[in-house]
Amino acid sequence: MVSKLSHLRDKIDEVDKKMVELLARRLSLVTQVGELKSLQGLPIYVPDREAAMLASCRKEAELKGVPPDLIEDILCRTMRESYTNGNDFGFKCLNTGLRSIVIVGGNGQLGRLFGKLFHLSGYDVKVLESEDWQHADKILPDAGMVVVTVPINCTDTIIRKLTTLPDDCILTDLTSIKSTPLQAMMESHNGPVVGLHPMFSSDITSLAKQVIVYCDGRNPEAYQWLLEQFRIWGASLHCISATEHDQGMTLIQALHHFTSFVYGVHLAEENPNLSQLTALSSPIYRLELAMVGRLFAQDAQLYADIVMSSPQNIDAIKLFHTRFGEAITLLDLQDKGGFISAFQHVEDWFGDFSQHFLKESQALLRQANDTVHLG
């Protein structure tokens, strides 16, 4: 029995080595594709191509008795690596005549990320920090585009200093709120203006499948090349008004971050054994705990600014507090019928999204569980 088991394990090891060889071959082919895309200015991420390839491979896997989800997991992880490697070849420059791009706050994490991508695309990138402001009059008059990426609490002040830009200079920002910065840019500059919100953190390795929200300001024809440049980097673009954007961010960012903050504060005050808590956690709770812990591994000032950036955020959080209290009343009254009724009301509101989110979360939980057991 021991000999037979050892023999089978040796066979598995052989297959694993062949899989590594095949992956190396695939990455080599992807490298060649990346070089061609870089020369031709093609996006590194093409949704239709990826969807068709995954569908074909799932069908092929089914015919061979291989779980389709398994092959999709392998391919998605492989493609993510491929998109990262795509950065190595740089990107086609879509506006070769553009004067320098000045990133105000360019030494920050997000500023460095965008600076790197612009540099990889062949643009001349300059950084302007607060300590360099005395040299601004030497840098800004020759700017073809100015990108403001500074803390939320000083974004408006910085933008209102930018009153002497060339008329054809594009003025934009990378802030997570849009109404106030966009208004400030429109009032401070007579040229092209667009508000941007990258919906990702600065620790990503590729913009493939990442979303950049943009809010039109003035002269959109002047910055269409910029939006196309983002697409070449792999990003998906979503156009929305500044007002609608900020209403959405109240729920997506401010309320979510605040509830995570309160839960973290509660855990710290209760002071459980965190190692034991994670050992007892199911994959879904561990993932939720990881997302709360992720918040507290980042900049406190940033999240304070996000949550407190507008009165609308505070009002929404207070309304949530009221509804939380109403839900507690159901517990105090032991009103199981009321609880179920409220549950079903929310279930109806989610509609078909419930099943979609269930499937999506199952994939996330499988990955989370793999990570746990890998240590």
Automatic annotation (TrEMBL):
This is T-protein. It comes from the Bacteria. Residues 99-361 form the Prephenate/arogenate dehydrogenase domain. It is found in: Cytoplasm. InterPro entries: 6-PGluconate_DH-like_C_sf (IPR008927), Chor_mut/prephenate_DH_T (IPR008244), Chorismate_II_sf (IPR036263), CM_dom_sf (IPR036979), CM_II_prokaryot (IPR002701), CM_T (IPR011277), NAD(P)-bd_dom_sf (IPR036291), PDH_C (IPR046825). One of its GO terms (biological process) is chorismate metabolic process. One of its GO terms (cellular component) is cytoplasm. It comes from Candidatus Enterovibrio escicola. Pathway: Metabolic intermediate biosynthesis; prephenate biosynthesis; prephenate from chorismate: step 1/1; Amino-acid biosynthesis; L-tyrosine biosynthesis; (4-hydroxyphenyl)pyruvate from prephenate (NAD(+) route): step 1/1. NCBIfam families: CM_T (TIGR01799), PRK11199.1 (NF008400). PANTHER family: PREPHENATE DEHYDROGENASE, PREPHENATE DEHYDROGENASE [NADP(+)]. The keyword Ribonucleoprotein does not apply. It catalyses: chorismate = prephenate; prephenate + NAD(+) = 3-(4-hydroxyphenyl)pyruvate + CO2 + NADH. GO terms for molecular function: chorismate mutase activity; NAD+ binding; prephenate dehydrogenase (NAD+) activity; prephenate dehydrogenase (NADP+) activity. Keywords: Amino-acid biosynthesis, Aromatic amino acid biosynthesis, Cytoplasm, Isomerase, Multifunctional enzyme, NAD, Oxidoreductase, Tyrosine biosynthesis. In the C-terminal section; belongs to the prephenate/arogenate dehydrogenase family. Residues 1-90 form the Chorismate mutase domain. Pfam families: CM_2 (PF01817), PDH_C (PF20463), PDH_N (PF02153). SUPFAM superfamilies: 6-phosphogluconate dehydrogenase C-terminal domain-like, Chorismate mutase II, NAD(P)-binding Rossmann-fold domains.
